[in-house]
Specification:
alpha+beta; 10 strands; three-stranded antiparallel beta sheet; 22% helix; globular
């Protein structure tokens, strides 16, 4: 069961903090369905995902991580929320090895190899198509979150897991 809690924002708008699904839940291994309805339910989902992401202090959150098998992602690496509906990677280049973790795998960290440049084609909450480029951390976030939409968690991409001492040094 995937629960969430209603939270009243200062502007009178009700938002919801959704429960983040943890590793071991089958939903994280399933391929998500294409979003076909761009309606108020999708808008609420995206708003709730953004609120949940901020509360959890993460960089990205995919719909299956809140129990919804839809191709929707929110990312915020400190430059504002990016919403991606039905995203597809259409170009990538380069290589980066860096530390990666996941809100669905709390306490687990590893070194992954990802492209250092990614171009994504997606739709916004109203169905309008757009293209967005990401480098470095944003490229890694795009790859990580889009993997979730295909039932892949970051641990499947880890080259080496961090030791408890290395994790402690991350702060």
């Amino acid at each position: 069961m995937h629960l969430y809690v209603d939270v009243m924002k200062g502007n009178g708008k009700t938002m919801a903090i959704r429960n983040i699904v943890k590793e071991g839940d089958d939903i994280l291994t399933k391929k998500c369905r294409t979003v076909e309805k761009f309606d108020s339910r999708l808008a609420v989902l995206l708003d709730d995902m953004a609120e949940t992401l901020h509360l959890a202090k993460g960089a990205g959150l995919a719909a299956p991580q809140v129990g919804i098998l839809k191709r929707a992602v929110v990312i915020d690496i400190g430059e504002g929320v990016i919403e991606l509906v039905n995203p597809k990677i259409i170009a990538y280049s380069g290589n980066q090895e860096s530390v990666e973790g996941c809100l669905s795998c709390p306490g687990d960290w590893g070194i992954t190899r990802r492209p250092d440049y990614v171009r994504v084609k997606a739709q916004d909450r109203n169905g309008k198509e757009f293209v967005i480029d990401g480098r470095d951390l944003l490229a890694k976030a795009f790859c990580h979150e889009l993997d979730h939409l295909d039932g892949i968690i970051f641990k499947q991409k880890v080259i080496r897991f961090l030791t408890p001492d290395e994790i402690e040094k991350l702060g």
